[in-house]
Amino acid sequence: MKTIEVVAAIIQKGGKVFATQRGYGDFKDWWEFPGGKMEPGETPEQALVREIREELDAEISVDKFLYTVDWDYPKFHLTMHCYMSSLVSDAMHLNEHEAAKWLSKDEIHSVKWLPADEILLPLIVEELESSGM
């Protein structure tokens, strides 16, 4: 089975995290944390900054490694390195997703997450609670 290695940003602001809705593919309309594939020679942090710039026209600070998810989808194995991140400025534009929203810890289960992203939810709630949000 083919392995795809990606990075994901859990962008937090004011006690909420940023979620994006896929507009294409087998999982169209499901929700995920933004990010994408690493390119040869990139560190995960460099890939994340580049991917968020490409997907959201946004600059982020990669603040803290959260977790690496390994998940078997029907057509490939996913290895996803996930980082708590914050915006450098508030400007964002959706270049690849059909929708986005900021979710509090109480709202985080209100959308249909991709399976690999859903694994992160307890860890993210813990992060939001420990930051006093």
Can you describe this structure in just a few lines?
By secondary structure, the chain is an alpha+beta fold. It has helices spanning 44-56, 115-118, 121-130, and strands at 3-13, 16-22, 31-32, 35-37, 60-72, 77-87, 97-104.
Descriptive account of the structure:
With 133 residues, the protein is an alpha+beta fold. It has a single domain (3-130), classed as Alpha-Beta Complex (Nucleoside Triphosphate Pyrophosphohydrolase), CATH 3.90.79.10. Helices cover 20% and strands 41% of the residues. It has 3 helices and 7 strands, in the order ββββαβββαα. It has helices at residues 44-56, 115-118, 121-130; strands spanning 3-13, 16-22, 31-32, 35-37, 60-72, 77-87, 97-104. Strands 1, 2, 3, 4, 5, 6 and 7 form a 7-stranded mixed beta sheet that branches. The longest helix has 13 residues, at 44-56.
Topology:
Elements: E1 3-13, E2 16-22, E3 31-32, E4 35-37, H1 44-56, E5 60-72, E6 77-87, E7 97-104, H2 115-118, H3 121-130
Parallel strand pairs: 1-6
Antiparallel strand pairs: 1-2, 1-4, 2-3, 2-7, 5-6
CATH class: Alpha Beta
Estimated radius of gyration: 14 Å
Given the C-alpha coordinates, what overall shape results? globular
Low-confidence stretches: none
What are the secondary-structure elements, in order, as H or E? Answer: EEEEHEEEHH
Mean pLDDT: 94
Number of helices: 3
Fourth CATH level, the homologous superfamily = Nucleoside Triphosphate Pyrophosphohydrolase
Sketch the major β-sheet.
7 strands, mixed
Number of strands: 7
Ends distance: 40 Å
